[in-house]
Amino acid sequence: MNSLGWAIIFKMGCLCTKESININGTKYIVLDHIAQGGFSLIDLVENSITRKRYALKRITCYSIDDQNIGMREIEICRKINHENVVQVVDYVLKGSADIVINTTSQLYMVLPYYKNGSLQDHLNIRARTKDFMPEAQVLQLFLGICEGVKALHDAKPEPLAHRDLKTANICLTDTFEPVIVDLGSATEARVQICGQQDAQRLQELAEERCSIVYRAPELFSVQSYCMIDERTDIWSLGCVLYAMCFFKCPFDPIYEKGDSVALAVLSGNIHFPEDSAYTHDLQDLVLFMMRLNPMERPFIYSVIEKAQDLVSKLESRV
Predict the structure, then answer these.
(1) Which of 24, 171, 173, 302 is deepest in the core (most CB within 10 A)?
(2) Strands annotated E in 195-257
(3) Helix H or strand E encompassing 38
(4) Residue 265 to residue 220: CA distance in whole angstroms
């Protein structure tokens, strides 16, 4: 057989051996690898019948605790029925995790596929040519993110906190609406810390699951007796708004230089570029959210109100 014949056979073999996954009777074909996180893999998949594309999140569970965390993410996604928070299309748990006998399980979550990628992807493209978003567009996007955060903070019976809000965890729909994704770190927002053991446990959890440059100061050095609440997200939201304006969050340069992010965050100093194209009002909104003392930080309602006031102010100038 000539080389062309072999090439055709190898190509056909490749097409025929594409991985497929059955989830509750629906077959999904794996098309591409999208991303890899600390606890999961995300692939681009296609429904074999409808040809509609989705993102498939795979979580390898090494213990019952891992399974519970994954199932908790699904539970939260389904509880928060809001257009600015990701929804789970379908899921299945395969296998049984048991750390004693060294077996694992796989949790598969079918999620919407956002072809525009994340807000971070969008900012990276703009950063190459220093293409700053107009302030009105920044505020419009930001208010959509705030509505998603509000849906989490308004959850019943207890408020929820995302605890890993960042530009990479905000996807953009076809109409450029923001959607908060990756609720794997989401948890009950209000935690009463009673003693050093509680403080150490929360601090270790934050180190494991909250991105360092977006992490609220109270999670770097958890006090032995304190209340942690949903305003951890408000600090992160301030970092997100800063990044929307200047392509990076305030502490990215510190991290990139290898300096201590913890010291930088706990200093509470937020620096804005001198040649900023944005109004002082927008910078004040960032500072309003990034108050070092969490008890002085606003709740999401006040953030939305202040952002809406800025939109009205901009519109009145037109």
Answers:
(1) 171
(2) 225-228
(3) none
(4) 9
Higher pLDDT, 40 or 248: 248
Q: Could you write out the DSSP letters of every residue in 137-189?
A: HHHHHHHHHHHHHHHHHT-SSS-EE-S---GGGEEE-TT--EEE--GGG-EES
Is the dihedral angle over the CA atoms 210, 211, 214, 217 positive or is it negative? positive
- C-beta separation of 158 from 101 below 8 A: no
CB-CB contact of 41 with 58 (8 Å)? yes
Burial class, 197, CB count within 10 angstroms (exposed 0-12 / middle 13-18 / buried 19+): exposed
From the candidates 43, 66, 164, 182, which is the catalytic residue? 164
Residue keyed to tokens 């959890």: 205
3-state SS, residue 107: strand
242 Cβ neighbours under 8 A, 6+ residues apart: 249, 250, 270, 286
For each of the domains in the chain, give its residue range(s) and CATH number, in order of start.
Answer: 17-112 (3.30.200.20), 119-317 (1.10.510.10)
pLDDT in tens, 235-245: 999 999 999 99
- Active site (annotated) includes residue 164: yes
Q: Contact 31/17 with Cβ under 8 angstroms?
A: no
What pTM, to 2 d.p., does this model score? 0.90
Amino acid 318: pLDDT: 66
| Cβ neighbours around 74 below 10 Å, total | 17
Whole-Å CA distances, 316 to 210, 309, 311, 313: 39, 11, 9, 5
Quickly tell me which residue has 């794997």 as its tokens. 184
